[in-house]
Amino acid sequence: MDTYRVIIRARFDGLTDAQRETLRSQADTCEVGFSERGSLAYDQSVSWFTFRFQTVADDDAEAQIAALDALSYPFKNETIGVTNMTEISSRALRRRG
Fold it and tell me: Domain 3-88 maps to which CATH number in 3.30.70, 3.40.50, 1.10.3470, 1.20.59?
């Protein structure tokens, strides 16, 4: 089974004042890393964010993207990057050998 790391970058769009304040109050507690649950990171400007998660080939990546939507923060201009960690490991081993 292949493991994938997914990074979604996007711009917050149309946040309410209450949402913006909630995000600002939590900005210093953001944990950046890859997990099945996912992690949301942003700075005090609350303009752009990065959502990272890790999944395996048999998992439904749509579920993690739906989790991002479920945060109820509107966003736009998203870019999605996917890295197959198995391929990275295989390439590194081939270079060593």
Answer: 3.30.70
